[in-house]
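Hypothesis: this fold can be encoded by more than one sequence.
Test: take the structure tokens below, design a sequence, compare later.
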């Protein structure tokens, strides 16, 4: 199947393509549902993912004005309780007052659309924009690894392209944007990426070329990744004849993140109602 003309790219789908073009094709184009688990033991993996989702929900509700004391009673699990306490005590300080939690932005890219769902965008109109992403990974992600991830490219790029309505209708400038990764288990050690015009131009060219490369493959079989370590954590590994057994949960949360296809606690993709997407044409 060729890529649908109305396909919407996200940082998750683009990251899948960069990690393994075949996984992108199976998941997003063919929509193949393959009955394989990603990590063993399944229960431990599911518990961890659920607590990561619950943490994001707590932070979202707090941003909407729900009292902290009321939310604290819901943080009953061990990891979630620790993350929530760290957030209340050491969340990012001095953020702009205008805050938009769980906001979705979208803009055209290479004949398709690019969209992203942000944990938080904080705006000081005409001054600065701060993107904050909450991470519940058990290892402090190295900066060099984050710098190469599609999220670090897509989020600042897209807020510049599609965030004018957050800035009183005035176009945002790349140098106004900063992105912060805040780690729930390492609250005193966030990672900051300051954006600028040169980076924006580079990201625009890279993302456009990536989308055009994907579209140009048509209905041929997309190639498999050459890094077979990633296959251990991919549900399509047996379909691609890259092994049967799933990777171990303990290996993933304790290993260097450069060996992982994605971060536990992050959604692999997002399902969105088109009416929820704030779009700015350019």
């Amino acid at each position: 199947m060729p890529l649908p003309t109305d396909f919407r790219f996200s940082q998750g789908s683009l990251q899948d393509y960069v990690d393994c073009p075949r996984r992108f094709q199976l998941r997003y184009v063919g929509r193949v549902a393959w009955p394989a688990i990603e990590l063993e033991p399944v229960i431990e993996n599911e518990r961890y993912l659920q607590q990561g989702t619950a943490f994001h929900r707590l932070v979202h509700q707090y941003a909407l004005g729900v009292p902290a004391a009321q939310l604290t009673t819901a943080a009953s699990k061990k990891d979630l309780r620790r993350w929530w306490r760290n957030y209340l005590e050491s969340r990012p300080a001095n953020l702009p007052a205008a805050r938009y939690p769980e906001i979705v932005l979208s803009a055209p890219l290479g004949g398709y659309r690019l969209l992203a769902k942000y944990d938080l965008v904080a705006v000081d109109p005409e001054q600065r924009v701060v993107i904050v992403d909450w991470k519940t990974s058990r290892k402090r992600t190295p900066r060099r690894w984050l710098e190469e991830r599609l999220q670090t490219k897509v989020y600042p790029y897209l807020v510049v392209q599609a965030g004018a309505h957050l800035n009183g209708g005035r176009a945002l400038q790349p140098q106004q944007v900063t992105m912060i990764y805040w780690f729930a288990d390492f609250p005193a050690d966030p990672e900051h990426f300051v954006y600028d015009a040169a980076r924006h131009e580079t990201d625009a060219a890279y993302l456009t070329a990536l989308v055009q490369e994907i579209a140009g493959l048509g209905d041929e079989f997309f190639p498999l990744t050459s890094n077979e370590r990633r296959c251990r954590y991919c549900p399509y590994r047996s379909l691609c004849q890259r092994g049967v057994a799933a990777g171990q949960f303990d290996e993933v949360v304790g290993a260097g993140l450069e060996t992982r296809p994605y971060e536990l606690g992050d959604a692999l993709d997002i399902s969105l109602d088109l009416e929820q997407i704030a779009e700015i044409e350019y």
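The first helix runs from residue 11 to 19. The CA atoms of residues 135 and 183 lie 5 Å apart.
Hypothesis status: open.
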